Amino acid sequence: MKLAEPIDVRGLLRTSPSFGIDEVRILCEVVAGPQITEVRQEVGVLVEESGGLGSMAVRAGIGLYLLGRHAKAHDLLGTVSDDGFGIFYDACSLESLGDNPAAGERFQQAARAGYDEVECALRRVGTIRRDGRLADAEEALKNVPSGSTSRAEYSYQMGCILTEQCNTAAAVESFERAIDMDPHHSRALFNLALENARHGNDDEAIRLYEQSLSRPPQFLGALLNLGLLYEDSENYPAAEFCFRRVLATDPNHSQAGLYLKDIEATSDMYYDEDLAKEELRMQQLLSRPVTDFELTVRSRNCLEGIGVKSLGNLTEVTEMELLSGKNFGETSLVEIRELLTMHGLAIGQNINKEQELEPTFAPSDLSPEERELIEKPVADLNLSVRARKCMARLGITQMGELVRRTPDELLSSKNFGVTSLNEIRGKLDELDLKLRND
After folding, report:
1. How many structural domains is the chain composed of?
2. How do residues 148-186 score in pLDDT, each as one tens digit?
């Protein structure tokens, strides 16, 4: 439903004879549009005038929930005992605050007070699952009232359970089914966006996050993730908008504040795309095997004998090391010089660079436990989107490769700021590891 003209927000919240599902749907559209400031003002006045009591307090509490003020919504709705509608939105507020046991109990109370029994039962399944009782959640989903399987919420809850069971493909199908039934099911859209982002489908993830935020309740996690995806695609104004929107709801949100500072710092940075392309070309060139080139049999055999397999290897050895190879003489050395010169390279040019990346430990010095630790994949750190993309850009896949890097090397990566650096430092501290030079 799209609003054709501005809504009388004051009348909707105050003088409307009833305040039920239809009125909340209209309020959702208003909150998602340009009249959100008017809603904030009217809800604030209603909170003061209601004194926390009566039907006006219920309306104000629901308004606060839709605005993302969950703690304040619970303050108003937590004492409601005979209004199923108000109790239901109190349960939603508690759910958003992470108090799953209390939320589950309030969903049951809402059903007893006359609110939609099926919806309450399905929402309660989610509180059981998030409380860590997956088997109980499965059982509760099987026992929800008849008619539930035709609801988008049923498919959403099934998708969440399948996700917990690591059945990603089936979970995605369930989330997609939920969205087919309700294109504005924000939680299903969020989870589907999350799966797409995990698999590198950034454009689709952005589209789904945007759709999930087109109607309240707008989850701060969706805004935060969308901001990071915008930032990674260099849409900095959109990223800044997302982080500021999070801070408008929660001024003390530390991550949003730090990400916003990174955005402001990024606006003064210059990203040299030509330089990045040249670096990529050089990486590809250095990785080319020497067998790709027309060398004499003697030169090829000599290089094989000393373990030189690529052009990059030739930039990491000295002429004396080459000459020390069996049957490798001045003629072969001249041949290698000419090959490298042809490609703008030189023997030994990357020796210092290679030394800089040498680990501060040798495998022989490590215990089996320490060796196992440095060989762990960096994916085990469960890094944020921004930090994961930095690891991918730098080709870092294992802990050992990460701890060989200095903080400055990480900070030189596109869109990688102090926030991400501190995140990685914190994760490494938990494993008693540090970056090089830290």
Report:
1. 3
2. 999 999 999 999 999 999 898 999 999 999 999 999 898
Separation between Cα atoms, residue 50 and residue 30, nearest integer Å: 22
Of 151, 96, 100, 102, whose CA–CA distance to 126 is shortest?
A: 100
CA 312 to chain centre: 35
Together in a domain, 366 and 393: yes
* Residue 399 forms part of a structural domain: yes
**pLDDT computed for residue 134 by the predictor:** 92
Q: What is the pLDDT of residue 271?
A: 46
pTM of model > 0.70: no
Q: Give the CATH number, domain containing residue 100.
A: 1.25.40
User: Which pLDDT tens digit goes with each residue over 75-125?
Assistant: 999 989 889 999 999 999 999 888 999 999 999 999 999 999 999 999 999
323, 380: one domain? no
Establish if 374 belongs to a structural domain. yes
User: Are both 348 and 422 inside the same structural domain?
Assistant: no
Supply the range of the domain harboring residue 424. Answer: 358-430
Token pair belonging to 198: 């995990």
Q: CA nearest 85: which of 57, 64, 105, 113?
A: 113
Percent of the chain with pLDDT over 90: 21
Provide, rounded to the nearest whole percent, the portion of the chain with pLDDT above 70.
91
Q: Is residue 217 part of a domain?
A: no
Residue 358: pLDDT over 50: no
